[in-house]
């Protein structure tokens, strides 16, 4: 009633303008809400290789593509149990193009994107961030260097995972490299490579496809992502 | 009674056989002489050995993902391309050693050739910088261990070694048996041009 009295006081033309403005703002608000950052915390798990692309061969004879898929499935369960939404780039032994992987990650508007690898070389966990130079975020970004605007966040994510893995006693190597797929992702993105667990004498204690070793790594990463979710800079 | 024309034919064939035998004997003698002459022209003094020079190798270490600088004295040829090939061959020989910190089989034979191409900057100017095109053998690529770290370290150690010894080489491109290949052993991208300056900054290292 008070609003009607106010509108009567403004006159007919002014009332129409005020109502039209309010209607426009309401419609605009309704239209922009789906485009706003999703409130849920989404993690993209990209099990590397698949199909004809077998990746490397582990000492046990298992192919890298199978090991990365197993780790992805394990992490998906752990992250879902911690209340996170999970998007995977593949759920079976299928070939997925690097461009398709990046598209899946970019559509998910994820808070973290992890490309999972396994190797027989080196030891512990290798964390790779894109070697692209950091760039300012822009409305339109080149596809090949889309990750450049997210490098700072990716390095922060690498730091968070590194701390958690070190705390659990893993040997961690941090590096930067050029990665097709990861370089096209518009999210904090890392490539994580699991190498054999070695003792002080350099002998292999656990292979990357060892169930206990893999569970320990997956648990640590899931806990680290939960801590990453709680950090104040998250959208 | 043998007809006269058959006698003549027999005589002609006999004469032809004798002539051919003579020609064969003569050819054999000439071939023998040629062989002896070849032996005479063999070098009698040792070839000149290239002078020994100091070369710097950036040696990869899988344990901590680092590149370690190693200085070595090597006989190096004067030609820059051949020089680069010898230095990189020496680097790969280290990786082929039984106790290598970055084990990759193949050794020096993994580098087929190294070509150095001048880089043009601007409209007319030549900057003096060069691109090294490293032609790897398919055997080397096939026997290289698969993995993000190990492949990246191989590529970066080659780039870093080229930069340390040939500072004018600013870019590196990789071929395998003269052809472009998507990756080394499933991970390291071989389609891109690598900047040698990246070799100094890209490697991280163990932080345990």
Structure description:
The complex is a heterodimer of chains A (235) and B (208). With 235 residues, chain A is an alpha/beta fold. Chain A is built from six helices and eight strands; from the N terminus they run ααβαβαββαββββα. Chain A has a six-stranded mixed sheet, sandwiched between helices. A two-stranded antiparallel ribbon of chain A has the order 7-8. In chain A, helix 3 crosses helix 6 (211-230) and helix 5 (151-167) packs across helix 6 (211-230). In chain B, helix 2 runs antiparallel to helix 4 and helix 4 (148-165) packs across helix 5 (196-202). Helices cover 41% and strands 25% of the residues of chain B. With 208 residues, chain B is of the alpha+beta class. Chain B has helices at residues 4-40, 80-96, 138-143, 148-165, 196-202, and strands at residues 52-61, 66-75, 111-120, 126-136, 169-176, 194-195, 205-206. Chain B has a four-stranded mixed sheet. In chain B, strands 1-2 form a two-stranded antiparallel sheet. In chain B, a hairpin with a 4-residue loop joins strand 1 (52-61) and strand 2. The A-B interface holds A 49, 53, 55-57, 64, 117, 119-124, 126, 128, 131, 162, 166, 170-180, 191, 193, 195, 202 and B 62-65, 103, 145-150, 152, 185-189, 192, 198, 201-208. Strand 5 of chain A pairs antiparallel with strand 7 (205-206) of chain B.
Let me know the number of strands of chain B.
7
Mean pLDDT of chain B: 88
Helix/strand order of chain A, N-terminal first: HHEHEHEEHEEEEH
**Total helical segments of chain A:** 6
First-last Cα distance of chain B? 111 Å
Largest sheet of chain B: 4 strands, mixed
Strand content of chain A: 15-25%
Silhouette of chain B: elongated
């Amino acid at each position: 009633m008070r609003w009607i009295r106010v509108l009567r006081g403004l006159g007919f033309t002014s009332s129409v303008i005020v109502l039209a403005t309010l209607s426009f703002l309401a419609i605009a608000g309704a239209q922009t809400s789906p485009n706003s950052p999703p409130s849920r915390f989404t993690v993209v798990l990209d099990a590397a290789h698949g199909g004809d692309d077998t990746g490397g061969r582990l000492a046990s004879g298992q192919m890298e593509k199978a090991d990365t898929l197993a780790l992805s499935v394990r992490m998906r369960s752990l992250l879902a149990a911690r209340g996170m939404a999970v998007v995977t780039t593949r759920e079976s032994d299928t070939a997925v193009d690097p461009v398709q992987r990046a598209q899946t990650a970019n559509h998910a508007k994820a808070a973290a994107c992890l490309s999972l690898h396994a190797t027989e070389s080196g030891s512990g966990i290798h964390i790779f961030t894109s070697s692209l130079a950091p760039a300012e975020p822009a409305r339109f970004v080149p596809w090949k260097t889309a990750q450049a605007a997210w490098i700072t966040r990716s390095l922060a994510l690498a730091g968070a995972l590194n701390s958690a893995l070190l705390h659990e006693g893993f040997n961690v190597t941090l590096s930067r490299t050029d990665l097709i797929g990861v370089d096209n992702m518009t999210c904090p993105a890392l490539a994580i490579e699991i190498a054999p667990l070695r003792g002080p004498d350099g002998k292999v204690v656990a292979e990357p496809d060892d169930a206990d070793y893999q569970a320990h790594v997956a648990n640590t990463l899931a806990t680290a992502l939960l801590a990453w979710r709680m950090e104040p800079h998250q959208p | 009674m043998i007809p006269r024309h058959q006698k003549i034919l027999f005589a002609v064939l006999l004469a032809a056989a004798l002539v051919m035998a003579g020609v064969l004997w003569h050819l054999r003698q000439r071939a023998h002489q040629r062989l002896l002459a070849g032996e005479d022209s063999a070098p009698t003094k040792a070839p000149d050995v290239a002078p020994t020079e100091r070369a710097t190798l950036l040696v990869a270490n899988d344990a901590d993902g680092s590149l370690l600088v190693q200085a070595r004295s090597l006989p190096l040829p004067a030609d820059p391309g051949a020089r680069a090939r010898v230095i990189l061959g020496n680097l790969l020989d280290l990786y082929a050693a039984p106790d290598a910190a970055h084990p990759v089989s193949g050794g020096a034979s993994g580098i087929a050739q190294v070509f150095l191409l001048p880089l043009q900057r601007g409209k007319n100017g030549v900057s003096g910088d060069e691109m090294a095109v490293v032609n790897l053998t398919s055997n080397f690529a096939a026997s290289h261990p698969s993995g993000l770290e190990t492949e990246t370290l191989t590529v970066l150690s080659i780039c870093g070694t080229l930069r340390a010894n040939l500072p004018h080489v600013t870019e590196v491109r990789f071929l395998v048996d003269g052809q472009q290949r998507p990756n080394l052993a499933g991970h390291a991208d071989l389609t891109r041009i690598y900047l040698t300056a990246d070799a100094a900054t890209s490697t991280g290292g163990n932080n345990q």
